[in-house]
Design brief:
Blueprint lengths: L1 H8 L4 H11 L4 H21 L1 H4 L31 H37 L1 H16 L2 H12 L3 H27 L3 H8 L4 H37 L11 H11 L6 H28 L7
Helix pairs in contact: 3-5, 3-12, 5-6, 5-8, 5-10, 5-12, 6-8, 7-8, 8-10, 9-10, 10-11, 10-12, 11-12
Length: about 300
């Protein structure tokens, strides 16, 4: 009788059982933030990957309608100063924003994280030199430095991504180096040294995996900041050249006509920038809480 009762009370196994088991656990605020951020980001990813399926018109076609026409049944977000459809340009602009921001963040991660890993683990003169160089770059205001680099390189997707990536390399360097300085003193690292493991092996197998959570959080937040930086460079005329659909470029053009009462050319690109930045910030802050148990609410 007791055996049969135990079988009845035994939770189901398989995917359904795992799902039910997870639902019984209390959810943290960070988990909801990550889900909300991913849901919002998935919308932008769909727009960036399949803009031709959503955009009703060619984003660079001039004279589709009256100049600065307000939102109506034909043009949901109205038209800009050249009679182009604002909705189509907003949709196609998602591709540029995601492409430039993620490329810049990936490039800075690929350069800054290994430098921080090697510098923090080996120490010595190499650490002092790299720290001095990174601190010198970090001392410059990020937007001013990006403007200077973009002005030298010229407009273009690749040049803008490079200009933005330079300002984030010190961020990854400092974060990873700080993590490595703590991790390299742990007992498991000393044990690996004792059994004869080489420094590259220790860094790859023991140090890097423990520094990875911080790198992921920094990456998502850097992408959010890169979206703003790219829009700022395009707003100043140093980003993506026209007529390529770009939110920062459309903000600059919309600012010229906003005083005449045409609010829509500047409103909708601005809203898209805010929402995309919000998506990455939710993911980054949520992951920071999920990956760090000390930040979770009791």
């Amino acid at each position: 009788m007791e055996v049969e009762r135990a079988r009845v009370e035994e939770p189901p196994v398989g995917m359904v059982g795992l799902l039910l088991k997870r639902l019984r656990k209390p959810a943290y605020v960070g988990e909801y933030m990550v889900v909300a951020g991913l849901a919002l980001l998935s919308v932008f990813l769909f727009l960036a990957l399949f803009p031709d399926l959503v955009a009703p018109y060619d984003p660079i076609a001039i004279g589709l309608g009256p100049r600065l026409a307000p939102p109506n049944s034909q043009f949901i977000m109205g038209t800009d100063h050249l009679g182009r459809d604002v909705l189509s340009r907003v949709i196609w602009g998602a591709r540029i924003a995601l492409l430039v921001s993620t490329s810049a963040a990936v490039l800075s991660l690929v350069i800054g994280a290994p430098l921080g890993l090697v510098s923090g683990f080996l120490g010595g003169k190499l650490d002092r030199v790299l720290s001095l160089v990174m601190d010198s770059i970090y001392a410059f205001p990020s937007l001013v430095l990006a403007i200077a680099i973009a002005a030298v390189l010229g407009p273009g997707i690749a040049n803008v991504a490079i200009a933005i990536s330079v300002i984030y390399i010190p961020t990854y360097f400092r974060v990873v180096r700080g993590e490595v300085l703590v991790i390299r003193e742990q007992l498991y690292v000393e044990a690996a040294r004792a059994i004869g493991a080489k420094s590259p092996t220790i860094m790859r197998k023991y140090v890097l995996p423990n520094a990875l959570p911080s790198m992921i959080v920094v990456f998502t937040l850097n992408v959010a900041d890169a979206v703003l930086t790219e829009a700022g460079l395009s707003f100043l005329g140093l980003g993506i050249p026209p007529p390529t659909p770009d939110w920062g470029q459309d903000l600059q053009r919309g600012l010229e006509v906003v005083l005449s009462g045409s609010w829509h050319p500047i409103f909708f690109p601005g809203i898209m920038i805010v929402l995309l930045v919000l998506a990455f910030c939710l993911i980054g802050d949520g992951l920071g809480e999920v990956l760090n148990p000390r930040l979770r609410e009791p």
